[in-house]
Automatic annotation (TrEMBL):
Residues 80-98 have a biased composition (Polar residues). The lineage of its organism: Eukaryota, Fungi, Dikarya, Basidiomycota, Agaricomycotina. It comes from Panaeolus cyanescens. Residues 76-102, 207-227, 321-353 are annotated as: Disordered. This is Uncharacterized protein.
Length: 353
């Protein structure tokens, strides 16, 4: 694997815009100028210095070691403050009032990878094509966008993808020892090549209602997507959507084009399949021991215990737009005369320029 210190500057010979965008994104991540921990170009030892699995409820969540240390230090400070006699409290460096210190929280580790979205395994419709209860989503509020990431074809990043896969395999192995199979994240593609499955929860429960009472998609003032204008394709989804007002709000896929501009929900289905992207994501693990469908993971029932890993998308940045798709020839009747022979046709067609 490569060393982050080796990524000092980009070779001037790389003049192709797509290649430069990929290399610039990689350099930014390795230099610590990005929110995510880049999984390519790093050793597993260096990654484990930054992240660890932590049990939260029934799940294991990959969190930052920095946040774990902050939580531990806070608890130790509180214990020390509580054990200090009242007469010595004024001289103590700790406060006996818990409200005087902002309690830190565990932060999920944001991982980064550069991958190409499989054109045939990309399901990012705003309504997910929901027509009624299904194995994937019994209710419309539970729909999720999903897609698979495969190895990029650009030579400058192929090895990084292999390195990232090896690091991810090592990470998931830490909480999935044994013979139980794994589902949900590390998978085999249609040709047997390894792929990664990512997901995005489309609707989130409303907890803090805005002052104007609208069902906004986020806490941002400039949010333009609400339940009213959220695209749906089927009448069943439109009907259920009306009953979700005040309870749920849409959570647009945080996907951005090469210029860093948000991709509108209705545009994702054409802008993402086949694109090479940088994905920031978090990892969560469950050990499923029963055969019943698990509501949190949306996994179907299966025999015996198995491990579920969910890679939830934090953000997507397009580095290379999808290649042009071959258009299927339009269907038409075979005529008695050559349609291109305008002069010889009984009913010549006028050419349009």
């Amino acid at each position: 694997m490569h060393s982050p210190s080796a990524q000092k500057s980009l070779p001037e010979s790389f003049t192709d815009p797509t290649t430069r965008r990929i290399l610039e994104a990689k350099k930014k991540m390795l230099d610590g100028e990005s929110l995510g921990i880049y999984l390519g170009g790093r050793t597993m030892i260096s990654i484990k210095e930054m992240v660890m699995w932590h049990r939260i409820g029934s799940a294991n969540v990959l969190v930052t070691k920095e946040s774990v240390r902050a939580v531990q230090e806070y608890r130790e400070a509180q214990e020390a403050a509580n054990s200090t006699p009242p007469e010595n409290a004024a001289n103590s460096e700790f406060s006996t009032d818990p409200a005087s210190i902002e309690p830190p929280t565990l932060e999920p580790a944001i991982l980064s990878i550069i991958t190409t979205i499989d054109h045939d395994k990309c399901f990012v419709l705003p309504c997910n094509g929901w027509k009624g209860p299904s194995v994937g989503a019994q209710e419309f509020k539970d729909i999720k966008m999903t897609f698979q990431g495969k190895s990029p074809t650009n030579d400058v990043i192929v090895q990084d993808f292999k390195d990232a896969l090896n690091n991810l395999k090592a990470l998931v192995k830490e909480v999935s020892a044994g013979d139980a199979p794994m589902r949900g994240f590390l998978m085999s593609g249609t040709n047997g090549a390894p792929v990664l499955r990512f997901r995005h929860v489309v609707f989130e429960e409303v907890t803090n209602r805005p002052e104007d009472g609208s069902d906004t998609a986020s806490d941002n003032d400039d949010s333009e997507w609400t339940l009213d204008n959220w695209p749906v394709a089927h009448p069943a989804a439109a009907e259920v959507k009306r009953s979700m007002h005040g309870k749920y709000r849409p959570n647009p896929l945080p996907a951005y084009n090469t210029k860093g501009e948000i991709i509108a929900p209705e545009r994702c289905k054409t802008a993402l399949p086949g694109a090479t992207v940088r994905i920031n994501f978090t990892l969560t693990h469950w050990l499923i021991t029963s055969n019943k469908t698990d509501g949190k993971t949306n996994s179907s029932s299966g025999s015996g215990p198995y491990h579920i890993f969910n890679a939830d998308i934090d953000s997507i940045r397009v580095l290379s737009d999808p290649p042009a798709q071959v258009i299927t020839p339009r269907k038409r009747r075979t005529t008695r005369y050559d349609p291109d022979d305008v002069s010889g046709s009984p009913s010549p067609k006028k050419k349009k320029y």
